[in-house]
Amino acid sequence: MENNRPSWTSRFSFILAAVGSAVGLGNIWRFPYIMGQYGGAVFLVTYLLLIVTICFIPLITELAAGKFLKKEIISAYESINPKFKLLGYMNPITGILISSFYFIVGGWIINYIVLSFSNTGIENHAEYFGTFTQSPVATSVYTLLFLFTCIFFAARGVKKGIEFANNTLMPMFAVILICLICFSLSLPNSHLGLEYMFKPDFSKISGHMFLAALGQALFTLSIGMGALFTYGSYIKDDKSILKSTYTIILSDTMFALLAGIMIFPAIFSFGLEPNSGAGLVFVTLPYIFTQIPHGNLISAAFFILLFAAAITSGISIIEVPIASMVERFKLSRTKACVTLFCLIAAIAIPATLSFGVLGDLKLFGKTIFDFLDFITSNILMPLNALFLCLIAGWALKLRGVTLIKNKFFAKLFDIGLKFVVPALLIILLYFGLK
Ligand code: PHE
User: Fold this and answer.
1) How remote is the CA of residue 23 from the centroid of ligand 1, in Å?
2) What is the DSSP secondary-structure string of 79-145?
3) Which of 159, 370, 379, 407 is the most exposed place for a label (fewest CB within 10 A)?
4) Which residues pair with 363 in a beta bridge?
């Protein structure tokens, strides 16, 4: 079986796919806002310190464990100890739950691409967004379309599907991003946006800021659901992963910062208030696009950029359950993809409807969409990352010397993996549950 496992064509393809996984909605609509909210440059420095010292550890561990065990994640955990099988299962399940809300936003993006090309004059963008997200048919169709696109690439396999998608979409993403940054910086008063992002506000230093930076780092680096484990398991043996890990971390951070440099100057140039997530991307920016010359074109470029980022992340999320279904349950890749399509659709459609007709249906006081977001980001991902570190550090006995040449840093890695990172993840989980 192991010889039949897919593998990457080159180290470059692997890095591109991993960066494609990391760079997603988390970078474009979450990072810039959180950075502004938590004190700009102060947050940035904390975040950078956190990723190069702490988050680097679960990231390289996921990749290394995947590369070392060369199995889909359930069988991999089981091979370490049969008792860990259940912990393995948590990863593809988390993947299915994440995709069920992530892909809804993917569907919204498709709607806004279509909208950019059709000349519908929208007067009130907040009202439009509200009405659109409540319309059951349109949102369901777009969610399924986004899901289908991810499944389509995944069904074609690692080389022809995943690599192809990343090799075409990631360069396109980078080119559009650079063009949009140039445009945004050319607007009057654009410096105000940069000030908002980078001006250090030391009064914001707090435990909350630290935890916000940690949570953001885990999500944006795709840690804690087996995506990187699975991508790591497709790496050929002779490849070292330390350099790849730093390339992934640096690229992800660079794209997050560039996304902010693209968005905030435009917002401040129009004297608007930066707000979070959905409101920023689907209300504030579309308003700006209607105010500028060639706004339709810029709008299309922006949403295509967002689409590219979300697709490459989406593909990595669904690869975890697909790998399990193919390798563990011996389904053909096509059958696995069809099964997964149905599974995700069965959760995503009710979640889509939770903005409208199913709005009153609450799980622990949250709508289905909010519940899926909460349970994956605040609970399952940190929990999976915690189990991964504990299993790799204590049961698999993964040691720094096998990954890092420098003896001192290798020792620090061991302490981090066995004690520091698990402790921090427990603290994150504790506050995430409050
Ligand atoms: N890292 C992606 C983003 O920033 C989301 C993601 C999470 C992708 C988990 C894969 C696994 O949007």
Assistant:
1) 7
2) HH-GGGHHHHHHHHHHHHHHHHHHHHHHHHHHHHHHHHHS----S-HHHHHHHHHH-HHHHHHHHHH
3) 407
4) 366
Ligand 1: residues with CB < 6 A are 21-22, 24-27, 98, 219-220, 222, 225, 227, 313, 316-317
Structural domains in the chain, CATH included, are 2-432 (1.10.4160.10)
Blockwise average pLDDT, block size 10, the chain, 434 residues: 79 96 92 83 90 93 96 98 98 97 96 89 88 96 98 96 96 95 94 89 87 90 97 86 93 94 92 79 90 90 96 98 97 98 98 95 94 92 97 96 93 97 94 80
Pocket perturbation via mutation, ligand 1, pick of 27, 166, 173, 220 by most ligand atoms within 8 A of CB? 220
Q: Which residues of 416-431 are buried (b: 16+ CB within 10 A; e: fewer)?
A: bbbeebbebbeebbee
CA angle 306, 312, 318 (to 5 degrees): 125
Instruction: Determine which residue's CA is closest to atom 6 belonging to ligand 1.
Output: 222
The CB-side HSE value for 385 (13 A sphere, CA atoms) comes to: 35
Residue 202: Cβ-neighbour burial (10 angstroms; 0-12, 13-18, 19+): exposed
- How far apart, in Å, are the Cα atoms of 330 and each of 208, 213, 233, 414? 45, 40, 18, 36
